[in-house]
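Thread amino acids onto this structure.
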């Protein structure tokens, strides 16, 4: 085992990570390659200036520090990198775009407000990162979390009394709606199933537009969810 000699004295550089990385994401990561790749991407992006911020597969494959850290986790460091990226994208930590030209290129973004906005602009043709074509979001062939997983990840321990209601919602609404409704609840810090259900009901009744409001309820309605 190689031993770390410790941090030196003097001024050190630091990399900033969101608190949610430790409280929400880290408990979900169960693969060492995924964790190492995720942390390294955050580290690279933190040091980049300007906008948009992304890393390419060429940057990652050519990063000796990253590849050294991935040795022994798969048949090769490159294979461990591929697995780590696929898992991070499937989990929703990173967003992945690929160019549609003759020579395929891959771009990775943190799944933040800024990252999602950049991806949307790229898909609309408002932002381009490659000269050989527009960017498209590749399909990731992974099993998406069902409504019970989403509930426990975003609200809390599942109670039997609500399981039937969740099953009914999963049969009634598209998977994309359910995932986005949970995400809105987290963004608004209202981790409450009634809040999520009401969003779905409103979409079904009024239609779901491309743009969504940050606040879905009046102040009086909002207080009711908080109390319950």
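Threaded sequence (228 positions):
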């Amino acid at each position: 085992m190689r031993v770390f000699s410790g941090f030196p004295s003097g001024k050190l550089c630091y990399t900033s990570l969101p608190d949610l990385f430790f409280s929400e994401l880290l408990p979900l990561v169960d693969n060492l390659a995924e964790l190492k790749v995720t942390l390294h991407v955050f580290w690279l992006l933190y040091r980049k200036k300007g906008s948009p911020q992304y890393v390419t597969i060429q940057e990652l494959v050519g990063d000796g520090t990253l590849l050294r850290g991935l040795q022994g986790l798969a048949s090769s460091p490159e294979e461990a990198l591929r697995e780590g990226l696929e898992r991070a994208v499937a989990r929703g930590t990173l967003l992945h775009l690929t160019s549609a030209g003759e020579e395929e290129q891959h771009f990775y973004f943190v799944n933040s407000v800024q990252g999602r906005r950049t991806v949307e602009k790229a898909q609309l043709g408002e932002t381009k990162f490659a000269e050989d074509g527009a960017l498209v979001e590749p399909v990731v062939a992974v099993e998406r979390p069902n409504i019970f997983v989403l509930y426990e990840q975003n609200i809390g321990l599942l109670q039997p009394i609500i399981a039937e209601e969740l099953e009914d919602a999963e049969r009634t609404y598209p998977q994309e709606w359910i995932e986005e409704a949970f995400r809105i609840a987290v963004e608004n810090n209202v981790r409450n199933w009634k809040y999520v259900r009401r969003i779905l009901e409103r979409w079904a009744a009024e239609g779901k537009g491309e743009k969504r409001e940050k606040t879905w309820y009046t102040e009086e309605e909002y207080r009711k969810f908080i109390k319950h």
